[in-house]
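Exercise 7. Given the encoded structure of a 460-residue chain, write a plausible sequence.
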């Protein structure tokens, strides 16, 4: 039953408890994206200086690459019946898997929880005129309450909220797309192609969409083992890609009208609804509900990632209790974000950090799956051996790609700088592309392939 507290945590799901259909994954992965954080990624493209068509191209590229691997990795759940970070042990080994599991715990259970709580809080405060603190408490209690109960209630919530959110956002899409000057490119289309803005937007979009992949099998492990993998992969991948791409494009067109100044304002959520006329109130409600839908998955899977690290807490409801703990820490972080008032730069930096680690991790687990042909994946994950190839490839690829190719306000990688940059009259360097995620993905796959071949004979 949906109201029964889940106690399976990271254990394999028995055949008698398997249920659900492949198409359910479309709503599971679309509902949490129907929120303002998704819209705001598209807004960042305008803030980065792209015109509307450049923004759309960057969004589709980033989301398309993320959607492909997301769909593939979702198909691993029904066979093994295990959460994603438990399956990650096959590539990273028993101790090495502490690294990606720990990162997933921090990024999902605390980082993403805080980011989405901020957008939900701003929407609820604008809608109700409640104080930010009261609005934040309402949002957090709803998120933690649903995730506390567990998988079945999450599935029901995401499915039915997706219907409401889809209707609201489709109407919002029509309103935004029909706004005068929404498709105007004259103001932004000048000079050379903005490589920095393009790669930053694609990287942020990739980080947002691929960030869900760290939880992929958490929501497919309850499906029957004979679930059609092709259908499952398409529904999961498209649910993620279609929802993120549509709302990011809505964000780009809306802020193309509002201007880059609104992107970096104190409450871009409220500014966004200014383009919607009488539909603003229902949109603010949808934004608040959407943030809850997103964070239900984040805090649930953050707890799963923590338990996948192997901690023995000694009670059956340890997953539920970890949800409460993660919600408390994430809530405090969200409160600091609300008080800070610089939503745009916080989200930009966070999304790029997500892409920096998740791209190498995806490359490694996919490569390992290919090399082993997925043989006995569930059994191997439950009896993990010590292995150095995965974590070594991950650390080297992540560190090198950030060092060489990051393009941030505080740091510019020397290799990215050498590839392309523009020096302004005052000596300020701009337009350095950020290729960190792409380089990290390719390098991690290559290094793991080499290290795996070296390590395999050594174990015999």
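Solution.
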């Amino acid at each position: 039953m949906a109201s029964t507290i889940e106690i399976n945590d990271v254990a394999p799901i028995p055949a008698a408890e398997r249920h659900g259909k492949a198409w359910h994954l479309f709503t599971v992965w679309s509902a949490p994206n129907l929120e303002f954080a998704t819209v705001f990624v598209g807004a960042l493209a305008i803030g980065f200086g792209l015109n509307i068509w450049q923004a759309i191209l960057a969004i589709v590229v980033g989301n398309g690459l993320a959607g492909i691997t997301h769909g593939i990795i979702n198909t691993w759940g029904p066979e093994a019946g295990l959460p994603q970070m438990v399956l990650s042990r096959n590539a990273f080994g028993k101790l090495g898997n502490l690294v990606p599991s720990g990162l997933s715990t921090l990024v999902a259970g605390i980082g993403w929880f805080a980011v989405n709580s901020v957008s939900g809080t701003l929407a609820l405060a604008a809608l109700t005129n409640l104080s930010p603190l009261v609005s934040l408490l309402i949002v957090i209690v709803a998120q933690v309450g649903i995730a506390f109960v567990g998988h079945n209630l999450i599935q029901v919530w995401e499915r039915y909220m997706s219907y409401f959110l889809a209707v609201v956002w489709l109407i919002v899409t029509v309103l935004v797309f029909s706004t005068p000057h929404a498709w105007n490119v004259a103001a932004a289309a000048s000079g050379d192609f903005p490589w920095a803005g393009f790669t930053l937007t694609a990287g942020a979009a990739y980080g947002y969409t691929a960030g869900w992949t760290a939880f992929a099998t958490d929501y497919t492990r309850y499906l029957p083992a004979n679930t059609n993998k092709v259908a499952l992969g398409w529904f999961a991948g498209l649910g993620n890609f279609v929802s993120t791409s549509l709302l990011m494009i809505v964000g780009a067109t809306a802020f193309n009208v509002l201007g880059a100044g609104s992107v970096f304002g104190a409450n871009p959520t409220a500014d966004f609804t200014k383009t919607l006329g009488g539909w603003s109130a229902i949109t603010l409600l949808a934004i608040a509900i959407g943030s809850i839908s997103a964070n239900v998955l984040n805090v649930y899977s953050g707890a799963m990632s923590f338990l996948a690290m192997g901690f023995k807490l000694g009670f059956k409801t340890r997953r539920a209790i970890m949800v409460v703990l993660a919600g408390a820490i994430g809530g405090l972080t969200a409160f600091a974000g609300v008080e800070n008032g610089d939503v745009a730069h916080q989200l930009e930096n966070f999304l790029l950090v997500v892409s920096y680690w998740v791209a190498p991790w995806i490359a490694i687990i996919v490569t390992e799956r290919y090399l082993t042909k997925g043989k006995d994946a569930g059994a191997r994950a439950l009896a993990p051996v010590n292995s150095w190839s995965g974590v070594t490839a991950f650390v080297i690829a992540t560190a090198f790609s950030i060092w060489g190719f990051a393009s941030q306000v505080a740091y510019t990688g020397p290799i990215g700088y050498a590839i392309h940059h523009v020096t302004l009259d005052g000596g300020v360097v701009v337009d350095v592309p950020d290729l960190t995620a792409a380089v990290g993905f390719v390098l991690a796959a290559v290094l793991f392939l080499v290290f795996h071949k070296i390590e395999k004979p050594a174990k015999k």
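Remark. The chain has a mean pLDDT of 84. Students should compare their own answers with the one above.
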